[in-house]
Each structure stands twice: as structure tokens, then as C-alpha cells.
Amino acid sequence: xxxxxxxxxxxxxxxxxxxxxxxxxxxxxxxxxxxxxxxxxxxxxxxxxxxxxxxxxxxxxxxxxxxxxxxxxxxxxxxxxxxxxxxxxxxxxxxxxxxxxxxxxxxxxxxxxxxxxxxxxxxxxxxxxxxxxxxxxxxxxxxxxxxxxxxxxxxxxxxxxxxxxxxxxxxxxxxxxxxxxxxxxxxxxxxxxxxxxxxxxxxxxxxxxxxxxxxxx
Length: 217
Hints:
Blueprint: E1 16-17, H1 20-29, E2 32-39, E3 42-49, E4 51-53, E5 56-61, H2 66-71, E6 76-89, E7 97-108, E8 110-111, H3 115-129, H4 142-146, E9 149-154, E10 157-163, E11 181-184, H5 206-209
Antiparallel strand pairs: 1-10, 2-3, 2-6, 4-5, 5-9, 6-7, 6-11, 7-10, 8-9
């Protein structure tokens, strides 16, 4: 993935990565993206879930969705994802920071009409949220498929940005009697809670009982 004027990281460029696999890894771990676009000059940023299949990102929803109808017209979109890994406490207020992994992706979305690709996209979406879930549930019927708009966004113009490690203080501040370091943060899952209308003989599946995001496995 080669940087271009849109994807080139200008602020702290040493934290940038244009490696496709690193971009994929961050996208695969996150659950929510934010989509930025404009409608008649009015800017919008909308959070939504997504799924990835190789070098294509998929979003879906109702054909009545203003966001999807707008993106379906081929407008430019900026998609962002952020994983927060820790709070970085420095000796000075100025140098406090956060450890994070993020992706910024630019492009235009394309409607997915092919039934096979549409099903594959919905499977990618479902298994992105809970790996293994698609194989157990009822797949969409023709009416549900017709009532779902799926858009694909190529992962071509993208960059990642990552910060890790301890605070970076001014040299003269290291002698200050102030604690400094990192407070690591993780997104963890609590114990599954069964729907009261589940059939009584059903046990909690392993993928729910042991649910973890990628960095926790």
C-alpha cells in the first residue's frame, strides 16, 4: 500500500504504517468504524459495524438508510477505526498521551448485487463480530436479502498509525517526583447471558463462552 496525498501521515509520521497486513489486523480486531461523508455540503460522521473479506470492506443495512443511499451514489468516503490500548501518563500535563492503533481509509463504495458475493459479505460481517456464528444460525431468506443493502469499499487507499510504549517527557522533567507510566486498557467480554426464550436443552456455545477479540487470544 503506497501512501498518497490523502493517506500520507503528516503528524508524527514515524508512527505511520502503510503495510496492508497491519491495516487488516487493526480492521479485524475493531468492531465499529466511523464513516465520514457529505450530503449537499453538510458533513456527517456515522458509526457502524462492518466486515472484511480480503481487500474489501463491507457495510450493510436497510435500503432506506440515508447513509447507505448516499454512499451508493459514489460519494467520497473516509472511514476510520481506532483501538485504544492504554493511557499514557507523563510527568507533565503537556506530554500525556494514549497508546492506540488506528486506520484511516479513503474510497468510494459500490453496491453488491451479486447474490453469492452478498451472502459472503454478510457472512464476513457476522463472523467478524462473533467468529463461528454464521455456521450455526439461519441464513437470510430471499426476502431478507432483498431488504438488505450491501456496499463494498476497497481497502486500497489506507494508512495505519500506532503509538506504543511509555511517556516521552522533556529531559528536564525526568527528575520530577511524579509517577509516570501506562495504564493498559482492554475490551473484555463478560459471561454470556442466555435469552429467556432459548430452548432449555441448549448450552452456551464455546464461541460465546470463550469470546475474545484478536489481541486477547
